[in-house]
Amino acid sequence: MKLRRIKNQPGWYEIMSQCPICGSKGWCAINEEQSIVHCMRVPTDTFFDSVVGRQFKHYLDPNQIPNKSEIEIIQADSVDKKPNYHLNRVYRALAQELNLSNYHLEHLRNKRHFDDETIRFRQYRTMPDQDRYKVSKNVIKRLNDQSDLLGVPGFFVQEGKYGPYWTMAGQSGLMIPFRSILNEITGWQIRVDIPPLELHMKGAIKGKILKELDPRNGKRCALCEVITSGKTMEVILTEKDKKVCRSKSDQFVFSIELKQGLKYWWWSSGSKDNGSSIGGPIPYHFSLPSPCMPFWQVGEEPDSLIDCSEVWVTEGGIKADKASDAILKPFFGLPGVGAYPLILEPLKKIGCKHVVLAFDADVVTTPEVQLALELCAQFFAERTDMSLSLAMWDLSLGKGIDDLVDNGYLPQVTKLLD
Ligand SMILES: [Zn+2]
User: Fold this and answer.
1) Contact 343, 388 (CB under 8 A)
2) How many domains is the chain built from?
């Protein structure tokens, strides 16, 4: 298990590898004794609310507690994140130094159906796969000092032959800026070009990916090493082809599945020297319809440009941008469906009276999303006098609100709370 110490929470670690409770990566935490997991995805009766969402307390079965030797604690000399106005200054300098590759431009035009002007206003960029130190050097030239990159997630210091130098972390991919309600760029998400493959295992099995092979029938596949009943074998697994093994008496023994990992990652460098984590708190994204963008000054409240009494909320940066253009309302793009506590204060500041939740249409079929929705309604009811509505549509018309509007439909809005 890969762990990273959580700042301001002594004795707790973020689980960077698969969480032993939900099997996903990121956000879940474990204590020093490795006896309790705070899982963000699998509910229990004991929970508490943090800025990233509700955390459920799970006691680990003493037999499931991982070996100390299997635990790798990511140690780095990282620094605290700088305030938003500083991040914005550095990230805007970065936006001037990075390009948008043709590959990503075509993706935005053809898959997301953005026009070129919108793409320009939104400032999407490409994280290159090489010469990142050159970009960092040019960003420093635009600022006052090398130390301006300190505390800015994404940047870190590398030791080179001729001494240390600044460079940039992360996989290559499409960079999506996350904006505050004051139009400050406070972080970036990367839509990675090739998401890493992961092995998901449950029960009496261990294994690892040895190497990725050429795709078969359009599906990614990999040569894996697995250990079960004391035997080590090499097997080829294909993406999404879940193998389940049961005993003669139909008892579950193990399951193994090769899955594509997350497509969206925060641009962060908390595990690197002089790097900084995106967390504490993680950014939300606030989006105005793109015609407003050229008139929106940094530091300016959005209610001078657009009526903010009704604000819509969805999950994801690009999705919020896309939907805001189609529905002509201000949108929040949450970094995850459970991250709504992040936007409570911003909603109050811009004078919102009515919140419309527009999560994906599979809300009825995904228990996690359904739960997040119920908790979200409860959260707003307890803390605000804003009314709350739910935007709904048939899954056949599109999964996300971005797909829905692309297909030429609008959602139906139903009141949840008055
Ligand atoms: Zn978990």
Assistant:
1) no
2) 4
DSSP 393: -
Residue 75 bridge partners (DSSP):
none
Query: In terms of domains, do 183 and 218 share one?
Result: no
pLDDT > 80? residue 63: no
Instruction: Establish if 407 belongs to a structural domain.
Output: yes
Neighbours of ion ligand 1 (CB under 5 A): 19, 21-22, 28, 39, 41
Distance of CA 58 from the midpoint of ligand 1 (Å): 9
Strands 331-334 vs 310-315: parallel, antiparallel or unpaired: parallel
Distance 36 CA to ligand 1 centre (A): 11
Label residue 396 by pLDDT band (50, 70, 90): very high
What is the rounded CA–CA span in Å between residue 341 and residue 51?
6
* pLDDT for the residue numbered 159: 86
- The percent of residues above 70 in pLDDT, for the chain, comes to 95
- The answer to whether residues 388 and 377 touch, using CB atoms and an 8 Å cutoff, is yes
Q: Tell me the CA–centroid distance for residue 163 and ligand 1, in Å.
A: 40
**56 C-alpha vs ligand 1 centroid, how far in Å?**
9
- What pTM was computed for the model? 0.81
418 pLDDT exceeds 80?
no
Structural domain boundaries, residue 6: 2-74
Q: What is the CATH number of the domain that holds 190?
A: 3.90.980.10
Identify the three-state secondary structure at position 21: coil
From the CA of 79, how far away is ligand 1's center (Å)?
26
